[in-house]
Amino acid sequence: MTGTRKYCFLTFLTVLALLLTACGSASETTIATAVAMTVQAQNTLQAQFTPTLQPPTYTPTLLASLTPISTKVPPTAPPPNSGNIKSCYSATYVADVSYPDGTIVSPGTSFIKRWSVTNSGSCTWNSTYKFVFIDGDIMGGAYVYPFPAVAAPGQTVEIPIQLYAPTDNGDYTGNWMIQAPDKTLFGVGQYSQPLTVKIVVGSGTPSNSKTQTVYGVTNVTYETDVSLIRTCKPANTFYHYIAYITSSGPVKVTYEWDQSDGHNYHNRKIEFDSATTLAVSNDWAQGISSSTNSRWVQLIVTSPTYQEWPRFTLPILCSQIP
């Protein structure tokens, strides 16, 4: 309807201008004025009725209100290097302070087992560490004991636990280890062996294998045969080293040799018929390109009780007679 009125008005103005021209009664000025008014009216109407284009309006979506289909889990820290764990958590057995393995205990007797252990790692043991039962016979004790004292690297501490001998005669063994704050379990020695409680429940008069005292190794000394070591540049020569093992009685012993070059000799056996000293030996071959640095060997008893004996430093090759 609005468009129709616009065009009718324009037509009227145009006809009026033509009539004035035809009649000749109007002046040129009048005609020009009429034409100008016509054009102006046309422009005004066009401006009024020309639609203005507006961009579409969108209502933004609140992304925060959406529930994600999946959630990305933030990366976790990589596990600690195993070498660092080993250097941090390390212990060395020193001695059984009380009730050494093989002690005869009367049935039902309460006793306190004590070990002496050195912190040979790089981390300090404190109240966040625990002493825990691993397997075997728990002998009436708790499964977890608080660590008894603070031990900085290099310090030695006693670990006591209270136990109860079973009421039935026989041999009983319990295995225990230290637990770090991150739940890592570690024992003593190079192979992290558990600390053991080994008792014989009986009357104290050995009459059979179940009540017989368990003997073990009491001392180890070393020597080497210097005559077999020749020059600074050895060719097809070798170290011949010897360990003298002393036992407290008849016992079967399993041991190993460890060398500073990383070569170890496991599961070697020797049997004692009585309390005596026996010799065992091993050879370490040296090639022409062998280093002249100092070397050491170590004897470790793995049975009947785990024992690490001190290292023995071998003579330097260059100090020998050519």
Structure description:
With 322 residues, the protein is of the alpha+beta class. It folds into three domains: 2-43; 85-201, Immunoglobulins (Immunoglobulin-like, Sandwich), CATH 2.60.40.10; 217-319, Immunoglobulin-like (Sandwich), CATH 2.60.40.10. The protein is built from three helices and 16 strands. It has helices at residues 2-23, 28-49, 82-88, and strands at residues 91-98, 103-105, 110-119, 130-136, 144-146, 156-164, 170-179, 185-186, 195-201, 217-224, 237-247, 251-259, 264-272, 277-286, 295-303, 307-314. The strands form four sheets. Strands 2, 4, 5, 7, 8 and 9 form a six-stranded mixed β-sheet that branches. It has a four-stranded antiparallel β-sheet with strand order 13-12-15-16, with no helix packed on it. Strand 12 and strand 13 form a beta hairpin. Helix 1 (2-23) packs antiparallel against helix 2 (28-49). It is flat and about 60 Å long. The relative contact order is 0.11.
Our estimate of the beta-strand percent is: 35-45%
CATH class of the largest domain equals Mainly Beta
CATH superfamily of the largest domain: Immunoglobulins
Q: Biggest sheet: strands, sense, closure?
A: 6 strands, mixed
**N-C termini distance:** 129 Å
Proportion of residues in helical segments = 10-25%
Q: Regions with pLDDT < 50 over 5+ consecutive residues?
A: 55-83, 205-212
CATH topology of the largest domain: Immunoglobulin-like
Number of helices: 3
